[in-house]
C-alpha cells in the first residue's frame, strides 16, 4: 500500500525566529468595546481570521478603510484564496464587513451584526420553604430529644411507603406556591409573602429607541450588555428623560462634537457627554 506522508513546515521555514514583539514597532488600536463584541459573537475560524487581517490592514495603518485584495488576505493569513472569498461573502452577508467598490472595512457598529451571540442565562434560585417550628417552653429542644426525634423520622421514612409525593419532592413551579409548608422569614420568624418576579424594563427602553430613532435590532434582546444598559437607563434616568435625550440627539446629531448614539449602551455610557454638549449648544 502506498503511503502518503504529509509534510509540515517548520518554524524556520515560515521565517519565525525568537519572538520579541514591542509596541514601539507598531500596534493596531482597537476600541475595547469592539473587541469585547468580537469575541462574544459566534463566527467560523476563517471568518475570525479574515476580520483580524482586515483590522491589521486598516486600523494598523491608521485607516478606516483600504483597498485590500483577496490575494493579500490569503498571503497574510495562510488561508487559501477560495476560503478567503467564502469567508468574505459570509461576513458581508452578516454585515460584519462592508465592501464599497474596492474599499473594504469592518463595520464597527456591532449592533448591526447579524450574528449569534453567546449569552449565559441567569437563573433565579427558587426560595426553599422552611418548616415553621413552634417551641413550647416545656418542650425546649435538648440534644437527647433532638436525637430521638431524628431517629423517629428516619424509621418512619424507611418503614412507610409514600402514597403521594411530598411537597418537597414535587417539581418546582414558580407560578404555583401551594406547598403546605409556609415560607418563613429567617430574621423575624413570621410568614413571608411569596416572591414576585420583577419584569424586565429593557423592552420598554428598546421601544423608545424604535419610536424615536427607528432602530431596534433583534440581537438587542440577546445581548446582555444592551439589556443591562437599558436596565440602568430605566432605573437611573426614567423613560421620559430617555425619550427627551433621544429627541435632542436626533435633532443635533449632524452637528460637530455631538456624541454618536445608536444603542442603549451608547446612551448609558455617553449620557454625560450628551448632557455637556446640550449645555454648550444652549449657550
Summarize this structure briefly.
The chain is mainly α. 43% of the residues lie in helices and 4% in strands.
Chart the SSEs and their pairings.
Elements: H1 11-14, H2 32-40, H3 45-58, E1 66-67, H4 70-77, H5 81-93, E2 97-100, E3 103-106, H6 143-159, H7 202-212, H8 224-236, H9 239-252, H10 264-269, H11 271-282
Antiparallel strand pairs: 1-3, 2-3
Biggest β-sheet: strands ordered side by side in the sheet: 1-3-2
CATH class (first level) name of the domain at 27-112:
Mainly Alpha
Corresponding CATH architecture of the domain at 27-112: Orthogonal Bundle
Name the shape in a single word.
extended
As a percent range, the share of strand residues is under 5%
**Helices and strands, in N-to-C order?**
HHHEHHEEHHHHHH
Detail the poorly predicted runs. Answer: 1-7
Q: Which structural category fits the helices and strands? A: mainly alpha
Quote the CATH topology of the domain at 27-112: Arc Repressor Mutant, subunit A
CATH homologous superfamily caption of the domain at 27-112: Winged helix-like DNA-binding domain superfamily/Winged helix DNA-binding domain
Walk me through this protein's architecture:
This protein is mainly alpha-helical. It has helices at 11-14, 32-40, 45-58, 70-77, 81-93, 143-159, 202-212, 224-236, 239-252, 264-269, 271-282; strands spanning 66-67, 97-100, 103-106. The chain has a 3-stranded antiparallel beta sheet. The protein starts with 10 loop residues before the first helix and ends with a helix.
Amino acid at each position: 500500500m502506498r503511503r502518503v506522508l504529509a509534510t509540515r513546515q517548520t518554524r524556520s521555514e515560515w521565517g519565525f525566529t525568537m519572538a520579541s514583539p514591542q509596541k514601539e514597532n507598531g500596534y493596531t488600536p482597537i476600541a475595547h468595546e469592539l473587541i469585547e463584541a468580537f469575541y462574544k459573537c459566534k463566527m467560523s475560524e476563517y471568518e475570525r481570521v479574515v476580520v483580524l487581517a482586515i483590522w491589521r490592514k486598516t486600523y494598523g495603518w491608521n485607516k478606516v478603510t483600504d483597498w485590500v485584495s483577496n490575494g493579500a488576505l490569503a498571503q497574510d493569513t495562510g488561508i487559501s484564496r477560495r476560503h478567503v472569498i467564502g469567508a468574505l461573502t459570509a461576513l458581508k452577508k452578516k454585515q460584519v464587513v462592508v465592501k464599497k467598490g474596492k474599499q473594504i472595512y469592518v463595520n464597527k457598529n456591532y449592533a448591526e451584526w447579524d450574528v449569534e451571540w453567546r449569552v449565559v442565562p441567569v437563573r433565579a434560585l427558587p426560595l426553599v420553604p422552611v418548616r415553621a417550628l413552634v417551641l413550647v417552653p416545656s418542650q425546649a429542644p435538648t440534644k437527647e430529644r433532638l436525637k430521638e426525634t431524628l431517629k423517629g423520622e428516619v424509621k418512619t421514612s424507611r418503614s412507610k411507603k409514600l402514597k403521594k409525593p411530598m411537597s418537597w419532592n414535587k417539581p418546582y413551579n414558580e407560578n404555583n406556591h401551594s406547598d403546605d409548608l409556609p415560607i418563613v422569614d429567617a430574621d423575624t420568624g413570621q410568614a413571608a409573602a411569596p416572591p414576585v418576579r420583577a419584569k424586565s424594563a429593557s423592552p420598554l427602553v428598546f421601544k423608545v429607541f424604535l419610536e424615536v430613532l427607528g432602530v431596534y435590532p433583534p440581537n438587542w434582546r440577546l445581548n446582555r450588555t444592551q439589556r443591562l444598559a437599558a436596565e440602568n437607563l430605566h432605573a437611573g434616568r426614567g423613560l421620559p428623560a430617555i425619550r427627551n435625550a433621544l429627541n435632542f440627539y436626533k435633532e443635533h446629531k449632524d452637528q460637530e462634537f455631538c456624541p454618536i448614539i445608536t444603542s442603549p449602551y451608547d446612551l448609558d455610557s455617553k449620557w454625560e457627554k450628551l448632557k455637556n454638549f446640550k449645555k454648550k449648544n444652549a449657550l
